[in-house]
Every structure is written in C-alpha cells, then in structure tokens.
Amino acid sequence: MTNEAATAQAAEAASASEPLPHGLGASLPAADARAKTEGTFPYAADLWAEGLLWAAVLRSPHPHARIVSIDTTHAREMPGVRAVVTHEDVPGSPLHGRGRADRPVFASEVVRHHGEPIAAVAADHPDTARMAAAAVIVEYEVLDPVIDPEQAFEAEPLHPDGNLIRHIPLHHGDPEATGELVVEGLYRIGRQDPAPIGAEAGLAVPRPDGGVELYLASTDPHTDRDTAAAAFGLEPERVKVVVTGVPGATADREDQGFQLPLGLLALRTGCPVKLTATREESFLGHAHRHPTLLRYRHHADAEGRLVKVEAQILLDAGAYADTSADALAAAVGFACGPYVVPNAFIEGWAVRTNNPPSGHVRGEGAMQVCAAYEAQMDKIAKKLGIDPAEVRLRNAMATGDVLPTGQTVTCPAPVAELLQAVRDFPLPPLPKDTPEEDWLLPGGPEGAGEPGAVRRGVGYGLGMVHMLGAEGADEVSTATVKVHDGVATVLCAAVETGQGFTTLARQIVQETLGIDEVHVAPVDTDQPPAGAACHGRHTWVSGGAVERAAKMVRTQLLQPLAHKFGMSTELLQITDGKITSYDGVLSTTVTEALDGKELWATAQCRPHPTEPLNEAGQGDAFVGMAFCAIRAVVDVDIELGSVRVVELAVAQDVGRVLNPTQLAARIEAGVTQGVGIALTENLRTPRGLIRHPDLTGYALPTALDAPDIRIVRLVEERDVVAPFGAKAVSAVPVVTSPAAIASAVRAATGRPVNRLPIRPQAAVVTERS
User: Fold this and answer.
1) What's the pLDDT tens digit per position in 326-384?
2) Highest taxon of the source (predicted)?
3) Is the peptide bond before 196 cis (omega within 30 degrees of 0)?
4) Measured between alpha carbons, how far apart are the two ends of the chain, in Å?
5) Of all residues in the chain, what percent are helix, strand and coil, respectively (each to 5)?
6) The dihedral of CA 706, 249, 715, 343: what is its sign?
7) N or C: which terminal CB in the chain sees fewer CB atoms within 10 Å?
8) Is the CB of residue 574 less than 8 Å from the CB of residue 590?
C-alpha cells in the first residue's frame, strides 16, 4: 500500500455516512486529533495553579570548570524571589541518571558540560526568576575541556567513574579469514538534537502529606517518579507524576535535570511552581544523538560475498553515561547490518567527554553503523563494477541466519524481498530543463547554478533495529480494561508520544469486545508501570497487556451465555457488536449480554527474556528485529554541493498493519527525520560549547525539504512471538534513510561521502576529484 492510498482510505472513511472504522486493521482516527488541530489540547506549558510561582535554572557557561564558590545572596534578596536552591539543598540522593546514576542534580565541585544546572530559583514572575538566576554569582576556575573522544582514553578522569563507560569486544568466527577484495573506510556521524516541537515545561504542586505532584510530558513516568523521590528524600508513594500532552518525542522526552529542580522548589516554597524552558535551555538540557567515529574494513570474495567485517566504533557519550551502554550494544550488535557475515571482529567503546550529554534518540547506535556499513557495501560494488543493489542482494540476511553476536534470527527477516521491491519500483522522471522548473533543482528557486551542473544519483540503504529493551531488560507492562454501561475504559501507564498507542488500545478493545466506545484514561504513576515509550515497546508489551486484559473481560462476558447454552466460550464469537454461536443458535448483542454489569480485568505482558552480551560480545541480547530497505534518488549540483532529495522509495517489514493511516504517517515521519540527519542537522559544539542553540542555527528539515516518499511495499509476515504479530515501524526508517541518501550522493558525484550530515564540499566535483 502506498502512503497516498492509506491517506485516501482514511479520508474516504471520514467523509462516508457509515460509522467510523473500528478494530485492528482499520484506520481509526486518533481521539485527540481534533483538540490538537484546534489548539485546545492541554500541554504542560498550558497548565496553571492558584498561587503559582515561576522557576528558572542557572546553567554553566563553561564545558569544564572547577566551582570555587556559589553566592546566592543577591538572588535571595531580590523582591519577588521565594527560594533559591543549589546542591546544598538536595535532601536525598545528589546523583541521578537514566542508565546509571552518575549525574548531579546540581553541580557542586565541578561542571562537566555546557549547560549543566548550578542553581534554581522560584519567583512570583518568570522575568524575576530569570533575573534572579542570573544574579547567582558563581566563581569558576576554567579547565581545558576534553572534546575529542579519542583523547578521552588518555585524559585525566573527568568523572569519579572514569572516562570509559563501556567497552564491547565482539569476536565471531575465524580471525584469520580473508577475502580476495578488501575495502576500508573512516566515517563520522554528527550530533543530532531530538528538537521536539515543544520545549520542556512542567508544573510541580506540593501535597498535604509533604509529597509533590509533577505534571510533565514524561515518556517514562515511573522511572521519573522514582528518580525524583530519591532526590527529594521521599518514599515513591509520596511523589506522583501526571503525564500531560507530549509535544513531540523522538527520544527520552524530559530532561531530568529540569524536573528535579522544579520539584525541589515546590517542596521548599510550599507553592505550585512552573517552569517553561526556552529553546536555548532545551538544547542545553536534554540528551542528543551520540556523535560517532567508525573505522571499517570489509573482506569479500570475487563475487562480492562478505567473508569478514572488522570495525572499531567509538561513541561520544558526553559528560554522563545516560543510556550510552545500551546504544553501544545496539551499535556493536548491528555493526554488520542485515547481511550474512561468517566472521566479524568489532570493538566498541563509549567514553565520557566534556561535550553535551548523549542518550536515547530514535535508532541510537543502529543509525550510526548503518551509515558506515552501507558505505562499505557501495565501495565493494564499485570495486567489482556491479550494481550496488546486486551486491546487497548477494549478502542479504534471512530468517534462520546468525548475527555476529551468535543470536539466531528467528523473527521474519524478508531483507531480499524488501530490497527487490524498492529496486524494481519505477524511477521518478528527470526534471525539465526550463526556467519554470527551476524549483526542482537543488537549492530551490534561483538557488542552483546552471542546470547542466546537476547530476542525479540513485542509492540504496538496508537497515535494521531491535525492538524492546535488550540485554536482560525486564519489559513488563500492565493494563486494566473495564466495561460499564456499554463503554470500555483502558487504564495503562503507556504514554502516548505520537506513536499512536491510545488509538491502538481502542482498536484492540473494539476488536476483542465488540464495543465501539472505548476511552483510554490519562496516565499517572498511581497506575502500575508500563515502562518507557521507546523501541516500539508499547505496541508490543502494552498492546499485549491490553489484549490480554480485554480477552479476560471477554471470557467474563461470554461465560454466562456459554453455560446457559451448554457450550464453551471458544464456540462463541463477537463481531460488529453481536455475539453469535458457531451453530447460529445464539445471537444477541454485547449490550444485551452486559445487562448493566460492570466487568474488569488486569493483565501483564512480558516478552521472552534476553541476556547480556558476554566478554566476547556473544549472547541472545535482542527480543525482536525490524528491517527496512530504502532507495534514494537525489539531484546534486556538483559545482555548489547542494543536494535535493527527489524521492525515497520505502519497503518495510511491519509484521502486521494495525492502522494503515497511522503506520504510513509514522514511516513518513521517520524517513523525514533521516533526511535531516543526512543533510542539515548538526549541533555544532566547538570547544564543547553549543553553538547557536536555536532553530535558526540548527537546521531542521521543513515541509519544503521533505521529498516524495513512496511506501512501495509493506511485508506482513507476522512475528509469532509478538502480540498481533506486529513490529514497531518508527525507528528503522530513521536508521536507513540517511545511509540511502549518502549512497545516492556517492552515485551522483563519485565522491566518498564519509560524514553525516553531508557537507556541501563533500558533494562538489572538481577535475581532481
């Protein structure tokens, strides 16, 4: 199905006089779509409370410095200031962190990155709070920052835990194996910011029991609650996180260094406290994609079949560990890509520097290595003089093959089928060489040089990601389904971040119980945990929990009828709100069967366990995998180095389509994010300082930059271990599209293109190049 077909299907359904579609496989519209389009949907920045105070955070202007003294006297004496807090005012644990508790709530002795929190202020007006924060006097002894991750190995320790966060040596096969053909490459991936459409905001409200409620756009509310409780010196039961609307999330949405000062100020003042970050503060505070240095050597035989892959992968974690250990596991585990590689020897490191912290951003680890191994496949094809798609087909992975980690791929892996689909899709027509069509050229209207300087290139990318957590992570989720007066309610702490979980939950209940009206309750930490909204977790584990709970309610609904008619519940079915038996004897409606009763059930979903990689990088570390193939068509002005992405043809392994419109939108969004990674998004940090922390200096792709995206094939081969057989769809297009675009630019220019984003000088063709 193409994206145009999915959109047309949704439009036709919406305009028809028939009831809206429901159940799995239908394009059920999101319940909050109207409120969001009308601007009435409540986000944290919209919240208000009686007696509200405003917060501001003082952040370090240096990437590395020793704190000599902190003087808050002037700030405390300013009219309207109600509280100033520093590291001395943290009553509980002074350290926090998602992957490892190694980051201070407030810096006390040393600052390790630009923007690290030093102090926070609460005042009766936001301008007063900001002025008071600026009035806190901090005396620094500025230190030389370590900004090159390669220097981190020899540098003085930047942290009590040292500079090395994790090292993974992967050894698979025969180290002496060699191929007739050898290609090498050095690749660099820049720092990408998640750049959510809405900057961080939150409201903290003190409770009568001495606790606090935090209203946040959290994507992992129970982890945030536990972290906050530890910092506040409170029991978790006295801290409640209420999830507000999430204005965009392609990463761990909320900076915990933003949440914790907010709660501390509310506890200190006894008043509600609100903080809305500026875009600059947002850039300084949250985690970014890991900048990565990759060295590769591929061995292949005379036919282009891979014999051995050797690689070194170095992730710049920035000042703190965060989720860098997990990102490194993904990078090392998928370092060879969706290809059959009998021998692999990979060394991976994640190290601390004084650069801004790195963490979870969609496709972390897998995206960086995809850009490198696909460049290597292009080099092999060029050396052999064969089609780049053909060399990929000769090495494509399939179900039953073995990863370099020693794990057998048991899930559907239709890699060759995906690649053939995009390779065989018709190419877009060439632009006409007329003034009226100048807008088709790279650079936009009047932005290109002569049309004769434009070269077209076609390139390919094959990518893979893992779903759910890895290396022994407990991926449990809990959900409750209640039915009363013909209305179903789902309670699950799975956060809707735009991935469509609330819509999916409604579809599951509609499908299982035949009830049209289904509501999903707002999320807070009074509900059992559901885990973080990343790696497609909620489609799998939270959707699975909702399905199990709904099936338990279904059994409660059908048992009296089955008993009355002397048959088992398995002989009854629910379709379009009607209950019928296999023999037609029983026929009634769900509403009649309910007869005013209230039914409910709670269930959990926990996928099969995984294990950590051992000292040789071996182990069944991943629950499931998803694959994608993308063919990119680009036009490059070889004199100016400007690039226009003409078309991206996408084929993806999705397991099962649960909502066609929603799925197409997620794929398009992921592909477009990849366009930004490939061409424009690069958070520059000279000397460890974030340069131009705004959306003027950080160039996000806009609607004008988005290419034609053709979803040419969705392979629906169900994963038998996943609920509904579905796979997550958002991350793998992000991983694959930058590699495909770089491949197309190489085809157009003949240049190596070994850095992302692609700089103009890398696409300029001179006589010598």
Assistant:
1) 999 999 999 999 999 999 999 999 999 999 999 989 899 999 999 999 999 999 999 99
2) Bacteria
3) no
4) 41
5) 30, 25, 45
6) positive
7) C
8) yes
